[in-house]
Amino acid sequence: MEITDIPAGSRSAADIDEILAEAVDFATLINRASGLGADFDPRSDEVRQQLLSDNGYVTHQTWIGRLGGAIVAKGIAYLTLQDNLDVADVWCSVHPELRGQGLGSELLAAMEANLAAQGRTQLTSYCEIPPAARDADLRSAHLAAESGAGSLPVAQPDVAFLIRHGFAFKQLERCSVAKTATAAKLPARDLDAGYTIETWTGPTPEHRLDQVALLHQRMSTDTPGAEEFGEEEKWDAARVRALDAKRAEGREQLGTALALKGEAPAGFTEVAHFDDRPAVGWQGSTLVVRDHRGHGLGAALKVANHQAVGESTQVERIYTWNAVENSWMLAINDRAGFATWAWVGLWKKRLA
Ligand SMILES: CC(C)(COP(=O)(O)OP(=O)(O)OC[C@H]1O[C@@H](n2cnc3c(N)ncnc32)[C@H](O)[C@@H]1OP(=O)(O)O)[C@@H](O)C(=O)NCCC(=O)NCCS
């Protein structure tokens, strides 16, 4: 297999546009084979951005494997640029008709060698499995997550692949989906004294940049198992502004709910959607700062945001991911009408 690697920004826009349609078609084929559904198909804008540019904080590196000129395998690494400089989040995929012939191993070996040479020796990865595939043979051998909650069937090809290549299964997440129409019917909750919730769509208002930056920074340390997946991220107003600019460039709209106690940030939740797939929303970060937990803010934030997004956009359904040991968040989500869509394994490997 001929493998080419494309760090974002290493090729001209004209070069990228020449391979874009082919790369998107390949990623769509992989997604269709996964059973996750068309909502999860790659968006052309997103793939273009991953190939073309970084935002100073986050970049991507893409590997394309060809046989006889056609794309047969694709790998991607998500890399942060200001922190976690030894970490790479990797994912690889092989044409469904060419699996089990060593192409995935060949691609991963090339990715690992390249990343190790850059000092990126802490790899994370993930696999996404529809419930039907996980439940198909409940008596088969399962591997328990190191978190202690949840397991995955070892015969599942992507699970087998990651085990074979020395990744450790750290944590299981539940991906679930809810209709905004469900949130619209839920009553608004009375907040405890001193708390307020603001919602907006689009970029963070200037006077809220510092509060949102602090919440992003907490998000990198205060979620279950966060210490497994990297060090504390550094956030300030400039980084929030840069993220908003990147989103605007990718035609990503964000609906945000921010909880405040006076002017102190107490929590936030975000739902993203894209112009070219307006019915589908993606739950982003949700966090309540430790000092402000126990006031029902998690549920209140989600309901307020889903209601606002339902009113101000065409979003009909929202997908979310949660660690299965995060029973508090799952209970909130169950109440907000979320139902399981897929199981996601989070994996980790340290390169020699
Ligand atoms: C995971 C994936 C990339 C593997 O690609 P592949 O080319 O089939 O993998 P390989 O042929 O190199 O197999 C490597 C090892 O994986 C395991 N494996 C792969 N497919 C398997 C299957 N169907 N059943 C059991 N084990 C399997 C085996 O241990 C194999 O090693 P072996 O041949 O020495 O026994 C491919 O299945 C895929 O594209 N899946 C969808 C994308 C995905 O889920 N990616 C997540 C992983 S980053």
Major sheet details = 12 strands, mixed
Q: What name goes with the CATH superfamily of the largest domain?
A: Gcn5-related N-acetyltransferase (GNAT)
* Broad CATH class of the largest domain: Alpha Beta
SS strand fraction: 25-35%
Ends distance: 25 Å
What's the pLDDT, averaged over the residues? Answer: 92
Number of helical regions: 10
Low-confidence stretches: none
CATH topology of the largest domain: Aminopeptidase
**Structural class, from helix and strand content?**
alpha+beta
Q: Which strand order does the major sheet show?
A: 1-2-3-4-5-14-8-13-12-11-10-9
What do you see in this structure?
With 352 residues, the protein is of the alpha+beta class. The protein folds into two domains: 171 residues, Aminopeptidase (3-Layer(aba) Sandwich); 168 residues, 3-Layer(aba) Sandwich (Aminopeptidase), CATH 3.40.630. The protein contains ten helices and 14 strands. The chain has a twelve-stranded mixed beta sheet with strand order 1-2-3-4-5-14-8-13-12-11-10-9, with helices on both faces. It has a two-stranded antiparallel ribbon with strand order 6-7. Helix 1 crosses helix 2 and helix 7 packs across helix 8. The mean pLDDT is 92. Bound molecules: coenzyme A. Coenzyme A binds next to strand 4, helix 3, strand 5 and helix 5.
